[in-house]
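Field notebook, page 426. I keep forgetting to write these up properly, so this time I am using the form the group agreed on. The chain and the ligand, S-adenosyl-L-homocysteine, are recorded exactly as supplied. Prediction of the bound pose follows.
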Amino acid sequence: MAGTLESAGYTCAEDVSDADVIVYNTCSIRDKAEQKVYSAVGKQAKRKRNNMGGLKIVVAGCVAAQEGETLLRRVPELDLVLSPHHANRIDQLLEQVDQGSQVCAVEPIQIAEDIAIPRRDSDLTAWVNVIHGCNEKCTYCVVPNTRGIEQSRAPEAIRREMLALGEAGYKEVTLLGQNIDAYGRDLPGAAADGSGRRAWTFTDLLHYVHDVPGIERIRFATSHPRYFTERLVRACAELPKMCQFFHIPFQSGSDEILREMKRGYTHSRYRRIMDNIRRHMPDASISGDAIVGFPGETEEQFEETCALVREVGFDRVNTAAYSPRPSTPAALWDNQVADLIKVDRLHRLNRLVNEVAEERAQRFVGSTAQVLVEGPNPKKSDEAVGRNSQNKLVFFPGNGLQLKGKLVDVQIDYVHAYTLFGHMLT
Ligand code: SAH
Ligand code: SF4
């Protein structure tokens, strides 16, 4: 959206009080994120009522998709409500606002290819969408309602965007999708090799974009265990630009809870995927997401989640207490877990996750990491910081400004759970 607005002649204000247009890009995955939006928007609406008649207030993202016109009724000072499907039309929608209408663009549509050059926060690493939406029906999740059905971008469009990034000096690309390994299911055709596979799978896409000049590293997120194939693991092990980093949410370690969540896999299938990755790439980083306190979760079932975390030895786990979401089945069940129990389980799981991550990080001590330097350490100017292939932050003495954008070898001397420290090898 920032890119589209800049191409339309808008510039970024330093301070929110100087802005003529304020865009809230919102998340509705959990209730807390949604409530933050209402309090932030409410403040600006009040300012507008009091003295800023010309101010335009925009709510974009998943809260916009979820609430639609309700948002306009709740906060009548809003000028524009637009769902993610319409994000790249924000300039045209603001023109409609200029003509005096209040606009609500939330109907799910075929997403048009971006024509504007997206603005990116870094000049080194970029995110590239490969698939929008989600076709799953996890019983806790609001995403299928807000993001709509899967829409894979054309492989040629993805490659074109990566070629432009490579030419502009970007070194690393993270390919993005809700369930990125489901890529291609909605694209027509069958593979030419007579294997019966679809014309395009995510693995085919990796082979197709892998040689883009200038791009030295490729990551991807998020993977869904149901679609994570052995073929994909092999491609990641064989293609040299692929980073050894996997984000594969598991949500729970209990087969009963996974069934209630409608995740479509079991604890042991998840373990087999992990074993597969470790067999091909013993040092790969693996991160996941987990939910505690899903309706009906017993202490024993929670313990199964803890057991999975211990067995796999994750590098990181994003944890959350279950949050009932509008229009999702599990929100209506009468076996909700008490908040106090959820919070207690969350704390216990977080403690375990940190212990496991710290233990797992020890494998790097004494090893040599290839680090893509992002610049100086913001807190210590005589140090440089970057990431290794496993997506860990690495700090080392050196001139971050001079080294920025270079791949350098760093010997790791000591580690914390989520950061590594070492010295550069010359
Ligand atoms: N498509 C990805 C995850 C997308 S949502 C997948 O299926 O793995 C990101 C994370 O938010 C999820 O992995 C889940 O852990 C968390 N999440 C989603 N809905 C939630 C809810 N209602 N309460 C708590 N956490 C939730
Ligand atoms: Fe939500 Fe499940 Fe889709 Fe992930 S796969 S976005 S958790 S519905």
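OBSERVATIONS:
- Residues 365-424 form a domain with the OB fold (Dihydrolipoamide Acetyltransferase, E2P) fold (CATH 2.40.50.140).
- DSSP finds 14 helices and 16 strands in the chain.
FOLLOW-UP: compare against the apo run.
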